[in-house]
Amino acid sequence: MTTTFAPPSRRPLRCYTATSARILRQLRADRRTVAMLLLVPTLLMALLYFVYHETPTMPGVPSLFDRVGISMLGILPFIVMFLITAIAMQRERTSGTLERLMTTPLSKLDLLGGYGTAFSVAAAAQAGLACLVSFWLLGLQAAGSAWLVLLIAVVDAVLGVALGLLASAFARTEFQAVQFMPLVVGPQFFLCGLLVPRDQLPRWLEIISDVLPLSYAVDALQEVSRHPGATAAMWRDLGIVAGFAAVALTLGAATLRRRTA
Amino acid sequence: MANSDSSPAITVEHLRVRRGGHEVLHDISLTVPAGSITGLLGPSGCGKTTLMRSIVGTQLIQAGSVRVLGDEAGSRGLRSRIGYVTQAPSIYDDLSVVENVSYFAALYGRDTKAVHAAIDQVGMTPHGRHRGNQLSGGQRTRVSLACALVADPELLVLDEPTVGLDPVLRAELWKQFHELAGQGRTLVVSSHVMDEAEHCDQLLLMRDGHLLAQLTPDKLRADTGETSLENAFLALITMGQPR
Questions:
Q1: Closest to A6 (Cβ–Cβ): which among B35, B131, B152?
Q2: Are B103 and A110 in contact (CB under 8 A)?
Q3: Which one of A14, A165, B65, B135 is least enclosed by Cβ atoms within 10 Å?
Q4: Which of residues B118 and A259 earns the better pLDDT score?
Q5: pTM (2 decimals)?
């Protein structure tokens, strides 16, 4: 007797969309994480507002809150998404589900793309709320459009997701994954031009800052802060950030192994 | 009973695997007939899981070949034809039973009907809305099994699927395994409990990374002159001669 086995349906992107939806469902199941994800950057922006509230403002120069705040709108989603992604991926490894997924028709890019998409949706919501509150409640001023700030913030968050996925490949435990946060984010934060303008850094640090993606994210946001329209420099910087994210995702896929020892 | 073509579902030749600097599988050669249940038996740590990982294609191997359903183990075309259930239940704790099985169904391109059938098969329909972390160990094992059954695979590789289950459910699952084999599917089921061997058409007996014997339960009893399979396995070890 011959048995025929039902062929699976051939819907392209089926594995990718199912994975994105699955990760969003997992996120939704954890209400407290959703609440913190949405509120923490916004609350930090409010804190920043009060920190700079009584510092004197010089005429013709953007206030400290305007300068630092707009950069923070890009940096905070980057940090949060890096951390969440690195841990989520690490959980997938330790729970044995990754090994199982590697025996299914799911491709490595489906998996990483699914993580990238699901967390970028979360990041867009997070950055959206932070921008909304900053511009309309805390009176953050920028010469350019708030929509451009939101766009840059979301791309920064995607960069965080991509670097988080890549970092998780080098972490064997969740403790290690957490330690990658100061390691990856710390130098980028110090050198991105927020603490000291990049052209005032020692030459060798300036060179390093030139190859770190967060520098371009902050540069792009400063462009929006100073110029009324979207400048060519802003688009170039944003493109560089997106390029870094794409490279990190590809490297992440390359480090993911179906066969392990 | 047997498949129309008599070629084996799995052929392993001279397989060697090293893990953590020492060899854990030594020159394993075996065949698994299609449309039957093959029991992989041996004490914990004897290499059962490593052999199963080699079959599903997630294990790096040092030498030898593993061919599955006519293809190199781990090749892309096989991924929709094999269901693998890891020893520790690998499901998502923060998703419900239905959401877990639905996700794997989507990966394999199966529909909602298949999802409910798979959940029903493992007796988890009353718990469909419960989250993974609300389930007992045995229930998690069953959901993990449903995530493989939903794929409707030709080959099912099950790593200790009945550990920690109550006897009634264990009997039910073995009945289902026989039904699946009756449909022409091939099952490889590992266990460290010899009384499970009774349910299998063929046995692969392992110890310390060596394959001691490949035979039927009746042949094992006849060869060793023992009535209980547990004692027969012991006798085989003391005789110290493969086959």
A1: B152
A2: no
A3: B65
A4: B118
A5: 0.87
Tokens of A257: 């192994």
> How far is B155 from chain A, CA to nearest CA, in Å?
11
How many whole angstroms separate alpha carbon A259 and alpha carbon B223?
A: 38
Strand order, beta sheet including B22-32? B22-32, B10-19, B63-68, B71-72
Structure tokens at A224: 């929006």
8 Å CB contact of B86 and A15: no
What ipTM, to 2 d.p.?
0.87
Residue B191 CA, distance from chain mean position = 9
Q: E strand or H helix at B188, and its extent? A: strand B186-191
CB contact under 8 A, B107 and A18: yes
Of the candidates A11, A105, A259, the beta carbon closest to that of B57 is on: A259
User: Mean of the pLDDT values across residues A16-39?
Assistant: 92
The contact set of B with A (CB < 8 A) is 3-4, 18-20, 35, 56-60, 74, 79-82, 84, 86, 88-95, 99, 103-104, 106-111, 131, 147, 151-154, 183-185
Tokens describing residue B206: 């392992």
Total beta-carbon pairs less than 8 A apart between chain A and chain B: 102
CA A243 from chain centre, in angstroms, equals 13
Domain boundaries, chain A: 14-52+63-255
Q: How far is A89 from chain B (nearest CA, A)?
A: 13
Helix segments in A137-231, DSSP class H: 146-168, 174-191, 203-210, 213-226
CA distance B157 to B84: 5
For testing the chain B interface, which of A2, A3, A102, A256 should be mutated: the one with the most B CBs within 10 Å? A3
The DSSP H or E segment spanning A110 is helix A108-136
Q: Which of A100, A102, A172 to mutate to test the interface with B (most CBs of B within 10 A)?
A: A100
Minimal Cβ distance to A14: which of B57, B74, B109: B109
Q: For chain B, what is the largest distance between any 2 Cα atoms, rounded to a whole number of angstroms?
A: 52
DSSP string, A72-92: HHHHHHHHHHHHHHHHHHHHH
DSSP code of residue B215: E
Q: How far is A14 from chain B (nearest CA, A)?
A: 7
pLDDT tens digit sequence for B57-87: 999 999 999 999 999 998 988 999 999 999 8
SS3 of residue B42 by DSSP: coil
Closest CA relative to residue A142, chosen from A62, A26, A88: A62
